[in-house]
Amino acid sequence: MLRIAVPNKGSLSDAAGDMLRESGYRTRRDAKELVVTDEANGVELFYLRPRDIAVYVGSGTVDCGITGRDLLLDSGSAASEVMALGFGQSTFRYAGRPGSVAALADIAGRRVATSYQGLVEKHLAEHGVQAEVVRLDGAVETAITLGVADVIADVVETGGTLRSQGLEVFGDPILRSEAVLIRREGSDQVAAIEVLRRRLLGVVTARHYVMLDYDVPATLVDEACAITPGLESPTVSSLQNPEWKAVRAMVPRSGTNQVMDRLYEMGARAILVTDIAACRL
Ligand SMILES: Nc1ncnc2c1ncn2[C@@H]1O[C@H](COP(=O)(O)OP(=O)(O)OP(=O)(O)O)[C@@H](O)[C@H]1O
Ligand SMILES: O=P(O)(O)OC[C@H]1O[C@H](OP(=O)(O)OP(=O)(O)O)[C@H](O)[C@@H]1O
Ligand SMILES: [Mg+2]
């Protein structure tokens, strides 16, 4: 059985469950379940705190897991990143009161509050900045108001929490994070992890692309295929009317409407977009 650690709470939990379900695995039915055995797929899911997942995977007690890249790096665990999963994106940044700090060098000699002590100490050391790191469990943005720190280093997604506390980011992001699949080198489940990786990649890719179908005058097929080249090559089928062809191709979701506009302008009609649930490429 392949042992997979899955976030049981927090920002990554629901999206990780959705992705595993879309990848064909049986997931928990209620939030109290801590272990789920999926005999049909030969996997066991262990629902653990995202911060602990890197530790379990690094120690080899589970084979792989889903957690945040920031948590993996903070833990100093021996686990390594297999692939990014395209959700839970955030940056990890320094912030302070406007006017009090403007650059990394200004942190020297001051107190930095964070829940990510390992990550921050490593970053400060790499940049030759000496500062005191104050380790907190959460609600780090309040630390400056309450006087336990001069600067914070925390996860920033929308920036709303920082703004609500009158704080501003400064310096370059320490890290860009998202949910990642992690594993430990030396696990004896190499083949099973590869199946999991391929399934997850199928869902990540399916989310990035849509399927586009359209009809186009036969004389314009080459021009149309240049706009929608697909991954290998688009499918071109005959229609009952020999003056028209049907074309089918995967296109990146982000540019779908621009592509549809260009196809329509060049004479394509009946342009249809459908979601792809999963794929193997
Ligand atoms: N808006 C966000 N807030 C917090 N973490 C986020 C956010 N977006 C993505 N993440 C990622 O979620 C992980 C944090 O997991 P954690 O279990 O601490 O979740 P949490 O949302 O902070 O939950 P909790 O309510 O337990 O504090 C990190 O990898 C972090 O980068
Ligand atoms: O940029 P934003 O969209 O505002 O999101 C970032 C905030 O969300 C997280 O806090 P969370 O709700 O997890 O609380 P915590 O600090 O107690 O973990 C994170 O620690 C930031 O505070
Ligand atoms: Mg949190």
UniProtKB/TrEMBL annotation:
Keyword Protein transport: no
Listed EC numbers: 2.4.2.17
Pathway the protein takes part in: Amino-acid biosynthesis; L-histidine biosynthesis; L-histidine from 5-phospho-alpha-D-ribose 1-diphosphate: step 1/9
Domain annotation Histidine biosynthesis HisG C-terminal: ranges: 206-277
CDD domains: PBP2_HisGL1 (cd13591)
Listed GO CC annotations: cytoplasm
Pfam families per UniProt: HisG (PF01634), HisG_C (PF08029)
Major localization listed first in the record, in broad terms: cytoplasm
An MF annotation (GO) of this entry: ATP binding
Limits of the ATP phosphoribosyltransferase catalytic domain: 49-200
Cofactor(s) the protein requires to work: Mg(2+)
Top-level enzyme category: transferase
Subcellular location: Cytoplasm
Reaction(s) catalysed (UniProt annotation): 1-(5-phospho-beta-D-ribosyl)-ATP + diphosphate = 5-phospho-alpha-D-ribose 1-diphosphate + ATP
SUPFAM superfamilies noted in UniProt: GlnB-like, Periplasmic binding protein-like II
GO biological process: L-histidine biosynthetic process
Activity control summary: Feedback inhibited by histidine.
Keywords: Amino-acid biosynthesis, ATP-binding, Cytoplasm, Glycosyltransferase, Histidine biosynthesis, Magnesium, Metal-binding, Nucleotide-binding, Transferase
Classification via InterPro entries: ATP-PRT_HisG_long, ATP_PRibTrfase_cat, ATP_PRibTrfase_CS, ATP_PRibTrfase_HisG, HisG_C, N-reg_PII-like_a/b, N-reg_PII/ATP_PRibTrfase_C
UniProt function note: Catalyzes the condensation of ATP and 5-phosphoribose 1-diphosphate to form N'-(5'-phosphoribosyl)-ATP (PR-ATP). Has a crucial role in the pathway because the rate of histidine biosynthesis seems to be controlled primarily by regulation of HisG enzymatic activity.
Family membership: Belongs to the ATP phosphoribosyltransferase family. Long subfamily.
Full protein name: ATP phosphoribosyltransferase
